[in-house]
Amino acid sequence: MPDGPAAGAAASGGQAEVLAAAACLVSAFGASDARRYFSCFAPGASFIFHNVPGWLPDRAAYERLWTEWEAGGFRVEQCRSLEPSVTMAGPGTAVFTHRVRTRLAGTVGELAERETIVFQRSPDGGWLAVHEHLSPDPAADGGTPA
Q1: 83: domain range?
Q2: Which of 5, 42, 52, 79 is buried most deeply by CB count within 10 Å?
Q3: How far is CA 133 from CA 6, 46, 108, in A?
Q4: pLDDT band at 13, cuts 50/70/90?
Q5: 76: closest CA among 116, 26, 5, 144?
């Protein structure tokens, strides 16, 4: 679940809905629940990950990569969202940012990353992620938070 001021009473309307959608996404990822996790993304969602060469142009490409990772022993044990923030970019578009800490099976310590996820309101009124960008978190190495 997101921790921080944006998750509290100050969030309202669309911001609160986007925070809830992001919390669902983070929870599913943290449980390594691929079905639930990928249901948080629109089919045409795109992805940029610092540890993956190139661009994943849609959800299907990411799902194939996830399946390859799982075949190699990949499993998420825990995922924490820190300092969540939502900026409404229009009536049906929101930008969610946070610092994310992930623990993977078979590894020591946590991955320290920061992430931007663009959400759009879906025809059913919910929010789906349409773009995700993941990068290393320089603050975890003693750098200045950006």
Answers
A1: 2-141
A2: 79
A3: 20, 9, 24
A4: confident
A5: 26
DSSP 145: P
Per-residue pLDDT tens over the stretch 37-92: 999 999 999 999 999 999 999 999 999 999 999 999 999 999 999 999 999 999 89
User: Is 146 inside a domain boundary?
Assistant: no
**DSSP symbol at 125:** S
Q: Could you tell me the pTM of the whole model? A: 0.87
For residue 98, give the CATH number of its domain. Answer: 3.10.450.50
pLDDT in tens, 114-132: 999 999 999 999 999 999 9
In DSSP notation, 64-124 reads: HHHHHHHHTT--EEEEEEEEEEEEEEETTEEEEEEEEEEEETT-SS-EEEEEEEEEEE-TT
Please give the tally of structural domains in the chain: 1
